[in-house]
Every structure is written in C-alpha cells, then in structure tokens.
Write a structure and sequence with these properties.
By secondary structure, the chain is an alpha/beta fold. 36% of the residues lie in helices and 22% in strands.
C-alpha cells in the first residue's frame, strides 16, 4: 500500500481502537505508526497490543512502527479533607511535607525534590494551569505561596513547575520497569516524557542499547532552553504541546513549535507535532476549521509526523479522525505553495560524503524529474539523510532488516520495503528497479536514482549514485566516490 503523502500519521491506541480489526482500519485510513501510552497501559495489555499490530503488519504486508510513550514523573498534590477547597486570589496557601489531609490553607506535597528546589518567585501551576501559585518562601519542608489566579484546588491534581529545574531524571521507577517491558516486546521507538536536560536521555539510551530509538518529548521550558544539546543526544523529537502550553505562555507555543521543527530538520532528526490536532473529533465527526489549519501548519513546516491522541484512542470517530488527517495532509502537499515553503526551510548539508550524496541525489532527481530516490540502508542512517533533504520525489528505503524498516516508517517521505541484501552492483540496480515498479513508483521507461555504499554491506559507507531505467536493460549510471 503506497501513501499519496509524505508526512506520516501517528495514531494513539486506546479503548476505541485496540482491537485487531480496528487497528487494520486505522492503518488503511492512513495511520503509519501506532502509539501506546504507558500512562494508561499495563504490561500485559501492551504486549497484547504489540501482537495485534504485528498481526496487522503481516496482513497488509507493510512495515508498521510502534512508539511506546513513557509516563514520566507525575507530580501531584495530596488529598483534601473535603475533597476540594475554594481559594481566593491574594490569599496565602502552603504546600508541605505533612501527610495530613489538606484544607483551605495547606496541602500535602509528596515530592521532597520540589520542596527543596522551589525558590521565592517561582510559579507553581496546579491542574494544568487552572490554579497559579507564586512562591513567597521555601525552607525545604514547605513552600509558602500566594494565590495569583484561579479559585479551586482538589485531590491529586498535577503540579507543573515552569521556573524550577528539578534535580531528578526523566525516568521514574515505573518508567524503568515499563522501558524494560517495551524493549522486550520489540517496540521501535520509546518516547521520554518531561525531558529537562540532555542528561535525562543518557539513562534511557544506556538501558535501550540500540534496541529501540529514543524520542525526546519537548514539553518543558528547560528543554527548550537546551534544545540543541537535547537534539544531539536524541533520535527524534516530539513537540508535546499539551504540557508545553501549561508551562509556557500559550501564545508562545506556535513559535516554539516552529523553532523545534526547524532545528530538528536541520539536524536530520525526525520531529512529531502532537496534542489536540483534531480535538473536536473526539465527539464530532468533523473537525473545526481552526484544527484543519493547525494540522496544515505542521505539514507546511515539514514535520515528519503529525499525531492523534484521544481522537483515535478514546474518541467516537477514530477512523474518521485518521482519514481526515490523511485528507488534510494530502491536500496541503498538493498546494502550489507547498514546495516553495519546504524548499525555503532547507538547510545546508553537513560536510560528509554521505550528506553530499543525498544532496546530489535530490538535485538530480528533481532536475531530471525522476520517479523516485531509492536508498539502500541497513541502519537507517542513509534514509534519514535522504529525508532531511525533503525531496519533491518519493524516497524508497530498502533494508534487509525489518526493525530498520519499522523505525523508518516514522520518517517524512519514506516508503520502506524489506528486501534481502543485493549480491552485487548489477543485482542492486535490478532489485531497486523491480521494487520501484512493484510498489507503484515507476513504469517501464521511467528513471530512478539509486544511492548505496560500495563495498556493499558496509554500514555508513554511502558513496555511490546510479540512475537507472525501470523495466529496461538500458541503464545510465554515474558513480561518485
């Protein structure tokens, strides 16, 4: 099944979409990668979902990626004697280490790392920012605050700390257990929540040992401030606009989204735009005009993937939501302004032979109006470089490794095919041309451009370009390197 768009769709699985039948419908509607939210999924259910996705993969004959999203630190206040309290702007309110039920003047905060890190002037946002407190003083055992905005606080509401750098990693004990479980289940990507600093990625990478790629979710101002360092240590980024919009001013989020997307593109790292993209389709069969525009902006920016959360996980119209996102993306990519916008954001390649080959492949393909760029890739690096160029023609990534093809299913413009290694250069060209024809990317007489490494089966050695005719023995070749 060939997609008619380049941006990929990431669909979250939940109660509305967890059956094998529904997963297949979502794939057929346009989903390329499935997300399992470990905040709401135990290990047994996770393994069941992975098994169902792999069953669908076998039926449709296409590599399907799986992203496991770790919960991350969940910071919450304790309980109240009355369940909730009504506060008044300007009053004093205290968060402390006393486990007794709270009242209108105080509540238990079971997180000593917050009590020891918050300083006077820092903001504390409760219940997704519905209540804003400002710290007046802190002694390591309690934080005395003034109520800035909002009126109600109730049991177990979340706490966000936009001004405070907490001395804890992004992995909790639950996350470590979940990470071990999802790695054992052979998921392709692991998303790390509430990353603050590049060091937060180190533990996850050490545990993963290459068995899955690590995606950093950017949802805290501390991560935005150290974005370049986080990109360096991550395999991909997610613009997690939900918590980002709580911890930073809402009006700043669109600009930050563009900043993150463009930085990831420059680095050649996949980037996902997520949260509330078609939120109204949780309960309605069509989205709002504003939501359509929101999805379109992410596509125009050249994001690798756009994500559905509750729309596909718990909504009343999961298939319709995926189909709508598919239609929006397809329409945007055929807009007359799309190519110009994508090209204007293109960055200079790095000074390496492989990057120069990828640049040359795009320029030749576009100049000669070739049918496709075909890359042989074992690790996926060549596919990443090809996608970084955002070519106007499709990219076919051929890999002998199924896990590599699954990982690349998240990548912009990349059609992944699992194929045995070529025996020699002639077999490489013949195989590429045959697959281009079989997968619907070329007809006899069309031309494609092939990139590979010589000698064959040498990782990271991309050094050759070759132009070939589909379905013909007449071949025009150009070798570089």
């Amino acid at each position: 099944m060939r997609r008619s768009r380049k941006v990929k769709i990431l669909a979250t699985i939940g109660p509305a979409s967890s059956s094998e039948e529904m997963l297949q419908k979502l794939f057929e509607a346009g989903a390329d990668v499935f997300r399992i939210n470990m905040s709401h999924t135990d290990h047994e259910l996770m393994r069941t979902l992975v098994g169902r996705i792999r069953a669908v993969e076998e039926k449709v004959g296409r590599p399907i990626g799986i992203l496991a999203d770790l919960q991350g630190p969940k910071l919450r206040v304790g309980k109240f004697a009355n369940g909730k309290e009504v506060l008044t702007a300007g009053q004093t309110f205290t968060l402390d280490n006393n486990p007794e039920p709270g009242n209108s003047t105080r509540v238990y905060l079971p997180h000593p790392e917050i009590l020891s890190s918050v300083e006077a002037g820092h903001r504390l946002l409760i219940d997704d920012g519905k209540l804003e407190l400002k710290a007046l003083k802190s002694d390591g055992k309690s934080i005395t605050c003034t109520v800035v905005a909002g009126t109600t606080i109730s049991d177990k509401k979340g706490v966000s700390l936009p001004d405070t750098d907490l001395p804890v990693g992004a992995l909790t004990e639950k996350d470590r257990k979940d990470l071990d479980a999802v790695l054992a289940a052979s998921v392709d990507w692991v998303a790390l929540s509430f990353v603050q600093r590049p060091e937060d990625l180190a533990e996850a990478r050490k545990i993963a040992r290459g068995r899955a790629l690590i995606m950093a979710k950017i949802e805290k101002p501390q991560a935005v401030a150290r974005l370049a360092e986080i990109i360096e240590l991550s395999d991909a980024l997610m613009v997690a606009r939900g918590d980002l919009g709580v911890e930073m001013p809402l009006e700043a989020v669109p600009g930050i989204q563009k900043q993150i997307t463009r930085a990831a593109r420059r680095a050649g790292k996949p980037v996902v735009v997520a949260t509330q993209m078609l939120e109204s389709m949780i309960t309605a069969p069509v989205p709002t005009r504003a939501e359509v525009s929101d999805v379109s902006i992410a596509v125009f920016e050249g994001a690798d993937a756009i994500m559905l959360s509750a729309e596909s996980a718990a909504g009343a119209y999961p298939v319709e939501a995926v189909a709508m996102m598919n239609r929006i993306a397809t329409k945007v990519e055929t807009d007359p302004t799309y190519a110009g916008i994508i090209n204007a954001q293109r960055s200079e390649p790095e000074a390496t032979g492989a990057d120069a080959i990828s640049l040359a492949a795009r320029e030749i393909a576009e100049t000669l109006k070739l049918s496709a760029i075909i890359t042989y890739t074992a690790s996926g690096t060549t596919g990443l470089r090809a996608a970084r160029e955002r070519p106007q023609v499709p990219i076919i990534a051929l890999s002998p490794i199924l896990n590599t093809a699954r990982r690349l299913s998240l990548l912009w413009g990349t059609h992944c095919v699992v194929s045995p290694d070529a025996i020699d250069l002639d077999d490489m060209v013949d195989r590429a041309c045959r697959i281009a024809f079989e997968e619907g990317f070329g007809q006899p007489g069309d031309r494609v451009i092939i990139t590979a490494g010589v000698p064959l089966r040498t990782p990271g050695s991309t050094n050759m370009l070759r132009i070939a005719y589909v379905g013909s023995d007449a071949q025009v070749s150009r070798n570089i390197g």
